[in-house]
Amino acid sequence: MTAHPRPANSPLRRSVRILSIAVAAGAMSLTAGCAGGAKVKDTAYVARDVESLYAAAKARLDNGQVKQAAQLFDEVERQHPYSPWARRAQLMSAFSYYAARDYTQAISSAQRFLSIHPGNKDAPYASYLIALSYYEQISDVERDQQTTALAKTALTDVMRRYPESAYAADAKLKLDLVNDHLAGKEMTVGRFYEKTGKWLAATMRFRKVVDEYQTTSHTAEALYRLTETYLALGLPEEAKKSAAVLGANYPGNEWYERAYELMQKKAAEQVS
């Protein structure tokens, strides 16, 4: 997912803009009054005053040197843990790691912020950044979906805990995409089981799509596949129910047409 360029108006681009605005707004009050244009050596692990250190980190971020910026923001907290700058530096560090696609470190930094400042006004932002970091790691449906499940949990958490925040709507959009991805995985496994004659195992996968991911794009096919597998299992009444649900919810859909033909063929075989 992360390796491909995205159109400028994609949901992820909007997400990054949301995060960038949030970071910039929070940092502005701190950077005002410090010598933003001062030429300060930004080598990590060199002791220096907090204003210069923060300005060096911010300059790196502005120049697109995001990994170096993250390390310098970490230094702000390490060298000046009790200053007002430390809390903001934690968030800036998390965002910088996210921008560098170091999602593991971004999640760690954001979780650290939440553990220390759970009631802070920037907690929704930190939670959203965690969700985005998982979301960016979602792989194709042929591979293990553990990260996808983590993304779903994190996005749901943003919506549940911060429904009025600026991030809830985008979290909902991404959650719909995550559910579609998870449903796609179930369909892939179900088709494999069906192809190899493991009818009961296939039925369980298709049933899960219908029960848990009914709003996704895979539901119509899942209902058709249930019709097929129920017939293979010798359960014509269950097959009839699946076909009926398919017809009621997706009239005119190609999967319903195929289910209708399948049921008609089955009825003809029984008569003959």
Features:
272 residues; Serine Threonine Protein Phosphatase 5, Tetratricopeptide repeat; 2 domains; elongated
Question: What can you see in these coordinates?
Answer:
The protein has helices at residues 11-31, 50-62, 66-79, 84-99, 103-116, 123-135, 146-161, 168-195, 199-212, 219-232, 236-249, 254-271. It has 272 residues and is mainly alpha-helical. It folds into two domains: 11-182, Tetratricopeptide repeat domain (Serine Threonine Protein Phosphatase 5, Tetratricopeptide repeat), CATH 1.25.40; 197-271, Serine Threonine Protein Phosphatase 5, Tetratricopeptide repeat (Alpha Horseshoe). It is elongated and about 85 Å long. The model is unreliable at 1-16 and 21-44 (pLDDT under 50).
Which CATH top level class of the largest domain fits? Mainly Alpha
User: Please, how many domains?
Assistant: 2
SS element count, helices: 12
Q: Would you list the SSEs in sequence order as H and E?
A: HHHHHHHHHHHH
- How many strands in all? 0
Indicate the mean pLDDT: 83
| Helical percentage | over 70%
CATH superfamily of the largest domain: Tetratricopeptide repeat domain
